[in-house]
Amino acid sequence: MLEKYSEHYHISISTSGVANSKIEISTLKKIDAFQISLYASNMEKHNEFCANNNSFEKIRSFSEQLKNNNIKFGYSFIVTPGTYDDIENIVKLAILWGATFVKFGTMVAKGKLENNNKYEIPLEKFENVKEKLDSLKEKYKEYIYIETINKHDSQIECGAGKFIWYINEYGNIYPCAMTESKECMIGDITSDNIIKHENVDVYTMCGTKCILM
Fold first, then answer.
1. Is residue 126 exposed (0-12), middle (13-18) or buried (19+ Cβ within 10 Å)?
2. H or E stretch at 58
């Protein structure tokens, strides 16, 4: 995929950061950016969440590899009632490890989480989260870009199928990673005409399957 499309498309990869250390540098440099999932600034808490005792150290090692080769990378972090106090620590860690961005998001009690709202920031506390992130964005603007949260309990402004694709390990193309099913497949990278369905109406096509909707 990289050989065929890296010169024509912006390619970014969202990853756990655990299984990437064996990829050749020449291949890594064809990717525009890596977004790595962090679940805590503390090694024990992060590894416990991932159920992997080596996850935190492997992320640190992979981040160092990307930094040393001038490859853009950053982290994503989900703010929940239990992780709220870790927000600034995540920013500091991202700066320490050489990231250029950190993205914050929240979970909403919809889709698979409809009956489990323990990870959702309550509406009355959402403004506190937003104010904290806005403050940190200003405080650390000379060191890192912080993507903050703008909405609570709302559908995302989705560009799936139009501005982004999700391509799985078999080369099948879907509007986004949340829609990996046969009926939502819009093409594959092995075909001459890789896109079978253009101008996808993602809300009609996959809205009932998306955990964000």
1. middle
2. helix 55-68
Q: 40: Cβ–Cβ under 8 A, 6 or more apart, which residues?
A: 46, 49, 83, 86
State the burial class of residue 123 (Cβ atoms within 10 Å of its Cβ: 0-12, 13-18, 19+): exposed
The residue with tokens 């559908």 is: 155
| Residue 141 token pair | 């603007």
Residues 6+ apart with CB under 8 A from 4: 189
| 3-class SS shares of the chain: helix, strand, coil, % to 5 | 35, 15, 50
Task: Compute the distance between CA of residue 149 and CA of residue 84 in angstroms, rounded to an integer.
Answer: 13
Q: Give the CA diameter of the chain.
A: 51
- What 68-72 contacts at long range (C-beta under 8 Å, 24+ apart), as own/partner pairs, is 69/25, 69/28, 69/29, 71/28, 71/29, 71/31, 71/33, 71/34, 72/32, 72/33, 72/34, 72/100
Q: Tens digit of pLDDT for each residue in 58-106?
A: 999 999 999 999 999 999 998 888 899 999 999 999 999 999 999 998 7
Burial (CB < 10 A; 0-12, 13-18, 19+), residue 6, is middle
| pTM, entire model | 0.73
Asked if residue 113 lies in contact with residue 119, where contact means CB atoms within 8 angstroms, the answer is yes
